[in-house]
Design a protein that fits this description.
Layout lengths: L14 H24 L30 E5 L11 E3 L11 E5 L21 H19 L20 H14 L2 E3 L18 H12 L13 E3 L4 H7 L9 H17 L2 H5 L4 E5 L4 H5 L3 H6 L1 E4 L14 E2 L24 E6 L7 H8 L6 E4 L8 H6 L1 E7 L8 H8 L2 E5 L18 E3 L7 H6 L3 H14 L14 H14 L1 E3 L3
Parallel strand pairs: 4-5, 5-6, 6-7, 7-8, 9-10, 9-11, 11-12, 12-13
Antiparallel strand pairs: 1-3, 2-14
C-alpha cells in the first residue's frame, strides 16, 4: 500500500501485482459495506419524545471538504410529502432511535484499472446544512449516555423532563447552529405584527422577538434551517374577516396569496413543499387558517395554542405552545405565591360556561364543596389571582377550544394544574413530562375530582409543587428573551421538528 500517493491515486504496478491487489481488495470492499449497514447498538436509547421510531437512510456522500462525523443509519422513508422530503416523524409519546456509525470522510479505494482523476464534487448549501443537522442528531443521541453538561444559567434535571440530558444537549445544539430566515414580504398589520397585550399575546411576542433577534435569525436564506412565515391570524380576523359574516374565504385567500408570493419569489418553499417552513398562531382559527394552502396545513410546522388532535393537530409535526394572557404586556405581579402550608384551599376554578367540559364541572361542583371551590362568577370582592395563590390545585378545563390560559396562570402562581380536556396536547410535551407536575383528569372522572385530589399524599403534592416552580421558567415571557424561557422553548420545539425532516435536492 506504500505505492499510494497523498491524493489517493495509485501508481502503475505490474499486472501480477495488480491482480493480487484486486483479489485482496474485493472481499474487503464487501465486508466494509456490511459494517457500514450493521454497526450500532440493536436497542439504542431514546432521543426526544415526539420523534419517531421510523428510520430513514440519509445517503450521505463522502465529503472531502467536510470533517468526518458520526451519523445514524436510517431505513428508507415512507413520507407522504414527496421524494424530495424524507420524514422521520412519529407520535408525540414515542421516541426516535438512531444507530450511530461512522461515515469515513475522504477515504476511498481507487482501482488500478483507471488512471483518470475523479472530479471533486461540488457540495451544495443544502447538503452542507443537512450534514450539519445530521451531526446534531448524533450529538443529541449520544447525550443520553454522557454526563450532564455544565451550564451557567440552568441545567435541566428531574422527572419533569422525559430525558433531561438529551433535552439539554438538543437545546445547546440549537443555540450553536439553528438559523431561521424570516420572509420580509407582507405589510403590517397582517404580517410582521401581532397582539402583545391579550389572550393571544404569544403571537405578537414571538413575531417581535423574531424580528429583533440577532442570534437565531439570518438574512441569508441559503444558511437557514427553517423559514418563518410572519403572519398574524388575530390581525386577519380583525382587518380581513367581516364580523358575523361566517365567511372565512378572505382569510384563506390572504394566507394562500402570501404562500404563492414567497413560493414564486424564492425557491425554498417549493424545494421542501413547505416542510421546513413554520407559522405561529394563538387564535382559535389558527388551525383552520393553516389549511388555506394544502401544503401549509399538511407539511409545514404549525406552532399553535389550539393543539387539538381532533382538529388535525399532529404532535409529530406540529408544536403546541402555551396560551398566555398578558393584559399589561409584562409578567409584573403575575409570578409568585405562598408556600404550600399557606394554601388552605384544595382546588379552585372560576370561569364562564362554554364548551362541552365546563357545564359538567359546574353541574357537579359549583358552590357545593368548601374544599373544591368552583364558581361561574366569583363573589364580589374576591380576587381571582389571590384564589389561585391560596389553592393547592388549580382546575383548568377546556372551553370552546382545548387550550386555556389558566394552565400558565396556575404555573405562575405555584398552583398545581389539573388538566380536564379531550384531545389536547400540552405545550412542549416532547420535552416535559406533564404527569410529573400536573394532574390529568378525564371528563368522565369529573364527579370523582375530590377523591382523585385527596388521594395524592402530602409528600407527593410537595414534589409536584416544587416541580411546578422549576418548570415555570419555560413558560415565562421576557423582553428581551432569556435562555430557556417560553420564546426559546418554542424555538426548541421547532428545532426538534426540523431535525425530523431531511430535505434532498432533485
Amino acid at each position: 500500500m506504500g505505492d499510494e500517493d497523498v491524493d489517493g491515486k495509485c501508481k502503475i504496478v505490474s499486472a501480477c501485482s495488480s491482480a493480487k491487489l484486486f483479489l485482496f481488495m474485493v472481499p474487503l470492499v464487501v465486508v466494509s459495506g456490511f459494517l457500514f449497514v450493521n454497526i450500532g447498538p440493536k436497542n439504542p436509547t431514546s432521543f426526544l419524545t415526539s420523534l419517531s421510531t421510523n428510520r430513514i437512510s440519509p445517503h450521505l456522500p463522502s465529503y472531502q471538504s467536510l470533517p468526518p462525523a458520526p451519523a445514524p443509519y436510517l431505513s428508507p422513508p415512507t413520507s407522504s410529502l414527496s421524494t424530495k422530503v424524507g420524514s422521520i416523524q412519529g407520535y408525540y409519546n414515542r421516541t426516535i432511535q438512531l444507530n450511530p456509525i461512522n461515515i469515513a470522510s475522504g477515504s476511498s479505494i481507487t482501482s488500478t484499472a483507471s488512471l483518470k482523476p475523479m472530479k471533486k464534487r461540488v457540495i451544495s448549501n443544502l447538503e452542507k446544512t443537512e450534514f450539519e443537522l445530521q451531526k446534531a442528531r448524533v450529538a443529541i443521541k449520544a447525550a443520553s449516555m454522557n454526563d450532564p453538561v455544565d451550564d451557567p444559567d440552568y441545567v435541566p434535571l428531574g422527572p419533569m423532563y422525559w430525558n433531561a440530558k438529551v433535552f439539554h444537549r438538543s437545546y445547546l445544539e440549537m443555540e450553536k447552529q439553528f438559523k431561521i430566515f424570516v420572509y420580509k414580504e407582507g405589510e403590517p398589520p397582517l404580517f410582521h405584527d401581532g397582539p402583545c397585550k391579550s389572550i393571544y399575546s404569544m403571537e405578537g411576542n414571538f413575531i417581535y422577538e423574531m424580528e429583533t433577534d440577532t442570534r437565531f435569525r439570518t438574512n441569508n436564506p441559503e444558511k437557514a434551517h427553517a423559514f418563518y412565515l410572519p403572519l398574524s391570524v388575530v390581525k386577519m380576523v380583525r382587518y380581513v374577516y367581516e364580523r358575523d359574516s361566517h365567511d372565512f374565504s378572505p382569510i384563506r385567500k390572504t394566507v394562500k396569496d402570501y404562500i404563492d408570493l414567497v413560493g414564486d419569489k424564492y425557491p425554498y418553499w417549493n424545494r421542501s413543499i413547505g416542510a421546513d417552513h413554520f407559522i405561529l398562531s394563538c387564535h382559535d382559527w389558527g388551525p383552520e387558517a393553516s389549511f388555506s394552502h394544502p401544503h401549509l396545513g399538511q407539511n409545514s410546522i404549525r406552532a399553535l395554542c389550539n393543539a387539538n388532535t381532533s382538529e388535525r393537530f399532529k404532535p409529530r409535526k406540529d408544536v403546541s405552545i402555551p396560551e398566555i394572557n398578558l393584559l399589561t404586556g409584562s409578567l409584573k405581579g403575575l409570578v409568585g405565591g405562598p408556600s404550600p402550608s399557606s394554601r388552605p384551599i384544595l382546588a379552585f376554578f372560576a370561569g364562564g360556561v362554554h364548551g362541552p367540559v365546563r357545564p359538567v364541572l359546574l353541574q357537579h361542583w359549583e358552590n357545593k364543596d368548601n374544599d373544591v371551590r368552583v364558581h361561574k362568577y366569583l363573589p364580589k370582592g374576591t380576587s381571582y389571582s389571590d384564589m389561585m395563590r391560596n389553592s393547592k390545585f388549580c382546575i383548568c378545563p377546556s372551553g370552546y377550544e382545548v387550550a386555556s390560559p389558566r394552565i400558565v396562570e396556575a404555573l405562575y402562581s405555584g398552583c398545581v394544574p389539573v388538566l380536564i380536556n379531550s384531545g389536547y396536547v400540552p405545550p412542549f410535551s416532547d420535552v416535559l413530562n406533564w404527569a410529573s407536575f400536573s394532574v390529568i383528569v378525564s371528563v368522565e372522572d369529573i364527579p370523582n375530582l375530590k377523591t382523585i385530589l385527596t388521594s395524592i399524599s402530602p409528600r407527593q403534592y410537595l414534589r409536584m409543587y416544587r416541580r411546578v416552580l422549576k418548570v415555570r421558567r419555560h413558560f415565562e415571557v421576557n423582553s428581551p428573551a432569556k435562555r430557556f424561557d417560553v420564546f426559546h422553548m418554542i424555538l426548541h420545539s421547532i428545532w426538534v421538528r426540523r431535525l425530523n425532516v431531511r430535505i434532498r435536492e432533485v
